[in-house]
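Continuing from the previous page of notes. For each protein in this section, the sequence appears first, followed by its structure tokens. Read the first protein now.
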Amino acid sequence: MKCKKRGKPSVALLLGACAAILLVSTSGMSLADPYKLGPGDTIEISIGGLPDQRNRTQIQIDGTIPLPGGGTVEVAGLTPAQMQSRIETLLQARILRQRLTDGRDQAFVIKPGDVMASVVEYRPVYVSGDVLTPGQQPYRASMTVRQAVAVAGGFSLLRSRGMQPGAADPADLVRDYQSLATEYTKEYFHIVRIVAELDGRDTFDATPPSDISLPANVIASVVQAERDSLKTSQSDYRTEQRFLEDAVKQTDAQFATLKKQQEGEEKGVQADEEELERVMKAFGSGLLASPRVSESRRALLLSSTRRLQTSVELMRLQRQREDFLRQTERVTSQRTINLLREQKDSNVRLADLRVRMQALSQKLQPIGGSGAIPVNSGELNPDVVVVRRLGQQWDRIPASVDFDVEPGDVIEVTLRPAAARLSN
């Protein structure tokens, strides 16, 4: 059939047609091309009237799936509608058996309208390059490059730096940095608590370091632990101090009692000495017998012994009181020494953690800013290439962030300086 000549087409129309043909030829497909099934897609086949005959299977690497009742069918390369038609054709008029609730078997003849075949899960897409967490993602209907990149954590230079030989994975670096930040916060508040303990305070400033960013619940748990430690330490120290102070007070009370007792015994000894002197004079004059002298001497000996025992007990109490006072000073000084040593060790650990965090920070900030590099920063632009299998070959399709991806696509992202991108 020949077309009638209707005049010369315009130059603009010809250029538009050529551009459309070029676009189709370079991409290998038109935007209206239906989706073709491939290995990795999950298909579900159900038979109406047979609830037990619901089979879900994945298209194998050879492009086939098993059919209910036996056999296989090749569906790779077909559209979902073509797959439905092919499976419906193969299964119609087949006889399947269904077990009834009473245990009997019933034959069931499949009619074309009884078969339903659909795609329940598509092949995943893959994101690689300058994104925070590259890898495999489940495909969702009408998925775009922008959505896939968002699920991958956004555009980032961390991955490109982490892919250098000998460099650690950025996710591991972030994890290590967070771990060091937690240890840094613990040491920081440990030092704050020690300073408060040295000053005799029961509270301390719970403001975290300005250069540390941790979840509020993590900081709160660290602060609470140090508060509990400060409370326990101060309570133990004050309890021990009160015990020693009470011991000194009890010793002073006993000392005062014995001192009064010593004064009374001193008077008794003095009286017994005077009595013995009077008896000796009377005995020398022949006015008293010798037994009276012996009694006076025994009384003087007994009172002198009691005075001596009281003096010894006073000396013991004096030494005990001095021991309690020295122990009080020793507890205070030893506690101060231990706290100062602990503070020095914590300062050393804090300095070491700060150095290690700064080293990790350099690795996590290759541009000098945050790890994730925003696209609209005016400095970097993403180059996106979608790698898609078309037939037996792979096609590389330059794309924008709003490009629609298909199951099985590989999205390659490269962040480039705006000037370099324009020059290319």
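Done with the first. The second protein uses the same format. Note its length before scrolling.
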Amino acid sequence: MSNSSSPLIQTLTPERWAGWSMDFINAGYAGLLVKNGQLVRKLEPGRHFSFALPWIEQCQLILVDSKVRNLEVRSQGDFLSQDQFLVNISLNVMYQVIDSKRVALELSDPLATLTSAVKDCLGVVVGQLRVDQLTNQGRVLIRQYLLENIDTFYLLGFNLDDVRVSDINFPQSRGIIRQVEGMSARQEAEHEAALKAQIAGSTHPVAPIQQVNIVSGGAGQTGEAALPLPDAALEQTAVLLQGQSFPQGQLFSRGQPSPAANLPAAKKQPLPATMLAPNDGAIARLIHVTSGQVIPLSANTFTIGREHSSSLVLDDPLCSRNHAQIVRQNNEGAILYQLIDTGSSNGTFIDGQRLVAHQPRWLMSGNVVKIGSQEWSFET
């Protein structure tokens, strides 16, 4: 195999005596005799004679290395896996020039062109693989794909003899995802800092939660509509706020401090029971496939995303800030639900099929909704 440090292409000006020149081409090289900018003939390894009129015809001898050579290709976050993870790949490509004329005379930068073609193929195969596939079988699958698609390299004048993947890794940066969402580096840092601060100051689990508004005495005091919940949740959350310590899991209206903290120390009066709005019997729900967590679709429109104001807040790096929404509709007495992807970068899926952004899809009981890395079963 040829040393990669030796040049792929060399251009020589033969020395002439009375217009004649004798040129010797070593084994493993192909020669191109160019006269006045035009290719005259190809030269095989061996001894060759050529004639040119002095001061009238300018001749050049171009030597192209036709031995097997090595090209090292390294990527820095150039590829995105099927499940939206950045992937770095380092590999060695053993290649050989099979069309010296095209490589030497028609390509302005042959090695850059070959590198670009290799990266194009890598982008295609990586985009079809998940992280677990890349981790377990990535080297074999990438090598197999490149060697099965050598027609791309034939058109450039190269042949791939072998491919050896030396490393596959996954950088921590989500730069490509950030660019797709339109977030600057500063905005992403501020968003993550705010999210960490909220998690640190919260007494609730970090698992996906649903924001619920509570009304007192049957009338909302915050100007927001009450969110109906099933009867079981109604019995568990109806409590008396009498200034004593509150049991874990008690719910308050969103954005309001604890009522006990607002009462004067000497004049604490018993407050009426906190009540939820009545259940209208038309609430569907999302059930987490892994944990079994039940999320009632008690808001219309029910929003899903990383944004804190969403009805269902998902702390998932593959979930967009405003990812999707579920709209409840009354169709001649029948309650139906539509799922809408609101332009997310990583997509919303129903039973494995990706939704077209901003085009509603009807939800049926038993459908599996996938957002980011989480799956939910829709039940009515």
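What the second structure shows: Residues 111 and 276 are 69 Å apart (CA to CA). Confidence is low (pLDDT under 50) at residues 173-181, 203-256, 263-269, 272-281. We return to this in next week's lecture.
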